[in-house]
Amino acid sequence: MLNRGFLTLIRREIWRFLALYRQTIIPSLISSGLYIMVFGQSLGSRIGTIKEASYIQFIIPGLVMMSVINNSYQNSSSSIIQAKFLRFIEDLLITPLSGLEISFGYIIGGTVRGMINGMLVIFIGWLLTGFTVGNISLTLFIMLLVSWAFSALGVIVGVFAKTWDHIAMFTNFIFMPLTFLGGVFYSIDMLPPFWRALSQGNPLYWMINGMRYATLGIFDTSPFLSVMISAGFTLAFSSVSIFIFTKGYRLKP
Amino acid sequence: MTQLEYAIRIRALTKNYDDFQALKGIDLKIPEGSFFGLLGPNGAGKTTTIGILTGLVRLTSGEAKILGKDVVRDFRFTRKSVGLSPQELNFDPFFTIRDLLTLQAGYYGLDRPLARQRTTQVLELLGLTAKADAKMRELSGGMKRRVQIAKALIHDPPILILDEPTAGVDIELRHMLWHHLKEMNRAGKTILLTTHYIEEAEKLCSDIAIIDKGRIIAEGSPGGLINSLGKSMIKLKVRNWKPSFVLKNREYNYSDDELTIRTNNSVKDMPEIISNVIARGASVEEARVFNSSLEDVFIQLTGKSIDA
Fold first, then answer.
1. Smallest CA–CA separation between A143 and chain B, in Å?
2. Which CATH number does the domain housing residue B260 bear?
3. SS3 of residue A65 by DSSP
């Protein structure tokens, strides 16, 4: 599978978002910096600490996840929908690359963008608040799982989407609410029992919980379960995206 | 001829789009090294056939083989063996022409030094060197068409499939492309061409298949098709011809001192026809021949012009 064609596709996907860094890297950096300064500074002093972490540091793992999710999803979905609209996806479909290689090429491109953005948010957090990562390898592993999962979801949505609105719909109506309700800015221990139980049905909550454990060593619920749930989504979305490209579903009449 | 000597071999190929049957069991044999034209009106099934051969369209039943290998089972081999220039212009807006070609070469497994070398060669071949660092959107329609063909050539495949390669290009470029295509064919590449320009098919193709409503309705060399299916005419300006005279075994009509005789082979039939006319006591003042063209054959077979 690690053939030259596959590596070329990965190179193309990474090259594309690096060339567009003003759209693909800088905005996420600015918005995360703003979240840290505005939410962290203004609310932080009033809230004090949560599970022995200062509020400003408590929100950073969630912001990392927000950035990872949005960027990995945006990369693969927008790359595919653009290739479909301008029909240059045909240049790829006629090559000797298999469906598995094409879907992984797009997924890896999105994953790399998600991870770069996630790491840059950590860097901004360190710069603005002195935030440090407790367990680097676990942090990278969770970041990789989540980034891969949402990049694979981006591939699926990119293939199915008929307009740019369909791509934005996921970001605005699904990721945004789920991220905000997933405990980026609060601990679910602060919620009444009903809302706490409901939050546990939100997959993004588990991903944020896992990242918080990996970086700060604090958690609301089982970090092991967090990793398992993230891995489950990674596996499920990857399988669907491979299936789509292998069968040519919605790509080949 | 053994199967391996066919560059492209299609057997009982069908393709259904929901309720519409685009291909109704077509058979095609395209020998290696040939310049083959697939002609048909819009919606006849040309692009679907090409799509199946190149992996852009899924077949419903039947089989398609490239150099003896199945396009579904052995897709890596077959796709490496084919370069496609699609009918519709497509472009990746992020990269320059040079980068696009280098990436395309990479998808086919060429390492970077070789990909760069091929890119330089192909840019030069198609007169694109001056535009190598431009992006597709900065190019004219004709230049974009050249880039499409450059992409098809980048991995130096033995088979080229060109779907309307000269659509929308000016005459100068068309002639330049014809020249290059002939050269490539002479150098051994098998070329499958679809075109709306009958003249193009007549000039370039050694063999032609006419497809209509998902079926191959005629196949052969342009000359052979014209001879077997076309109807040429001989027009004779005659004197003393009487309507009671009969030209045996000939389809003809007479009006205003002119006899119009239909024939499959005007050169061969002319002396005999003139002799027959003179033998009946008439004299021939003028003889003209109207030869049938491939376009006439096409219209006769499909009932419509190729532009329809």
1. 28
2. 3.30.70
3. helix
